[in-house]
Write a structure and sequence with these properties.
By secondary structure, the chain is of the alpha/beta class. It has 17 helices and 18 strands. 31% of the residues lie in helices and 12% in strands. The strands form 6 sheets. Strands 1-2-3-4-5-8-11-14 form an 8-stranded parallel barrel. Helix 6 packs parallel to helix 7.
Length: 569
């Protein structure tokens, strides 16, 4: 072989190795109403030293912001388009023309994922459409001259029927022959990847008594797992989960198919019943997985030692509009304001971090009582539908709040919703019911029967901080002055209030109440009569204050400026 030939071969290998380095990228989700602009988000991605980003659509503003950067991009065909695309080459062509051609190649789109976790769906038509849709998209790329773009799709671990020990890894029988076999054939033929979502957090959280936390966090020094069939030894749960996919693909005849970790991460917060979701664990896991995946030379896994394993960390931001348990909204490396949840960067070059992490406080199962109530900031107009759903699930969930029931208060939808949410959750929690209701509900460990009340008759002044805490407790933290009423005699120079009545929690609108009279909440709602219902009902998270102008109107003895100045704080 000539020297020139050897040199050429060496260069090709070097370029290939650089292209598929193990340096993790990041998943850029957009399910938040407070996220930075695309251009600012791209700067934040660069600040994390990420060289890859995965989108869950083909957002044109984001693709434009990524133009002329050195960040390689993965885009996604939405799940809802798959069935139609699988039947229509023209629709597939049009999707590529509209979403890829305006940006490629100056935006470095390199991967096109057809759907997200499709095979976790119960929709048989959607699952059957997956591989045909992947083929249609691949043909459209070729037809329209788009090069260097690999087609794939993402899979959750529930596509595996067995995963332990790893050598027993096998795809579910309902998809193995009908979907996975032709998919693997397609991926192998096109030299693409099997994109898999791997989260050690979930198997650990489901069985913390038998799965060691340090083993899940890459921190174990004395816990190993040996596969009896292969004698391969595992030092962390991540490798164990990856190799289950390796053996599953081998079982179908594709032992060398490359794997890409489409998502991995650890939640930095969650609900009270979600063990181990905290900043300490999230930072530990993500720092360790970055160190492992970016190692040079590559570490690989026991079944594939020394092999590069490309990946995306989930996720760029905490996303406040994701539904489901609290962890779903807390996988971000960054807060929506762009600040880091904890120190981290994705090059793998940083080995020491200056910041001391907060000690974990929920690595054991919470044993106290938990209630499910209306969330702070919940959209009141959506509560009726959620209330109807909770009450339609059987088990006499809502009997007490039905007409004629002991807790029926027809004008208090929020109260009814909190009762229904907690009652539903208590009945169906063990069978998979969640305290979510599309983000309208939240968990609380504060006993909802103990209302937050501050009686200023017990002392002469109420400070601004106490008022702010009251407003926060009832979900009015950032709202305008017109959302709250406080009966008081005067506002002091230090922004305190002098008055004889309670500040919180209720002042329902009542046309019989004169606007220039001071009235106690107890005169408007009989707490004693209603107290038996409050255990499942009104909670500190329930925003129940209504719009009623305060005493300080044109008929009062004080200028409204004082009241509004206080409330504005």
């Amino acid at each position: 072989m000539s020297v020139l030939h050897l040199l050429t071969l060496f260069l090709l290998v070097a370029v290939s190795g650089a292209k598929f380095s193990g340096r993790p990228g990041v998943n850029y989700g957009q399910l938040g109403d407070n996220l930075p602009s695309p251009s600012d988000s791209v700067k934040l991605i660069q600040s994390l030293n990420a060289k890859r980003v995965k989108l869950y659509d083909a957002n044109p503003a984001i693709l434009a912001a990524l133009n002329a950067t050195d960040i390689t991009v993965s885009v996604m065909v939405p799940n809802e388009l798959l069935v139609n695309i699988s039947k229509s080459s023209s629709l597939s062509d049009e999707w590529i023309r509209s979403n890829i051609l305006p940006f490629h190649p100056t935006t470095k789109i390199r991967y096109l994922l057809v759907g997200n976790e499709i095979l976790s769906s119960t929709d048989s038509e959607l699952k059957s459409a997956l591989v045909p849709a992947m083929r249609k998209i691949q043909r459209s790329l070729k037809k329209l001259g788009v090069k260097k773009v690999k087609v794939g799709t993402t899979l959750a671990v529930d596509v595996l029927e067995t995963s332990f020990p790893p050598s027993s890894g096998e795809f579910r029988s309902d998809i193995s022959g009908s979907v996975m076999k032709p998919m693997l054939q397609f991926l192998n033929r096109t030299k693409s990847f099997l994109f898999v979502d791997v989260y050690p957090y979930f198997p650990w959280a489901q069985d913390p008594a038998h799965v060691d936390l340090a083993y899940a966090l890459f921190e174990s020094t004395n816990v190993t797992v040996t596969d009896p069939a292969t004698n391969l030894t595992y030092h962390n749960l991540f490798d164990q989960m990856i190799d289950a996919f390796v053996f599953a693909t081998s079982r179908l005849g594709y032992p060398d198919l490359r794997i890409w970790v489409a998502e991995t991460g650890w939640p930095n917060n969650g609900d009270y019943d979600q063990i181990g979701a905290n900043v300490y664990n999230a930072a530990t896991y993500n720092r360790n997985v970055v160190k492992k995946l970016s190692a040079v030379p590559p570490v690989g896994t026991p079944a594939r030692p020394g092999k590069v394993l490309p990946s995306f960390i989930f996720a760029l931001f905490n996303e406040n509009q994701k539904t489901g348990p609290g962890t779903e909204r807390h996988f971000g490396l960054l807060h929506p304001n762009g600040s880091r949840v904890y120190e981290i960067e994705l090059s793998g070059e940083t080995t020491e971090f200056k910041e001391k992490l907060p000690a974990p406080e929920n690595n054991e199962v919470y044993k106290g009582k938990i209630w499910c109530v209306v969330a702070k900031g919940a959209n009141w107009t959506q509560l009726g539908e959620a209330l109807s759903y909770a009450c339609s699930q059987g088990n006499n969930t809502c009997d007490p709040i039905k007409s004629g029931g002991p807790c029926h208060k027809p004008d208090l939808t929020v109260l009814h919703a909190s009762y229904a949410f907690s009652s539903y959750w208590a009945s169906f929690r063990k069978t998979g019911g969640t305290c979510s209701f599309n983000g309208l509900a939240t968990q609380t460990i504060k006993d909802p029967s103990k209302l937050w009340t501050l009686r200023v008759s017990e002392r002469d002044t109420v400070t601004t901080n106490e008022l702010r805490q009251c407003r926060e407790d009832i979900g009015l933290g950032g709202k305008t002055a017109h959302d709250v009423i406080i009966g008081a005699h005067a506002v002091m120079a230090n922004d305190g209030v002098i008055g004889p009545v309670g500040l919180c929690p209720l002042y329902p609108p009542n046309p019989e109440v004169l606007l220039n009279e001071l009235r106690s909440p107890s005169e408007l709602l009989d707490f004693g009569e209603f107290s038996d219902c409050l255990d499942f009902g009104l909670g500190s998270g329930s925003p129940l204050l209504q719009v009623v102008n305060p005493t300080f109107d044109s008929r009062g003895g004080h200028n409204p400026h004082y009241m509004y100045r206080l409330i504005a704080h």
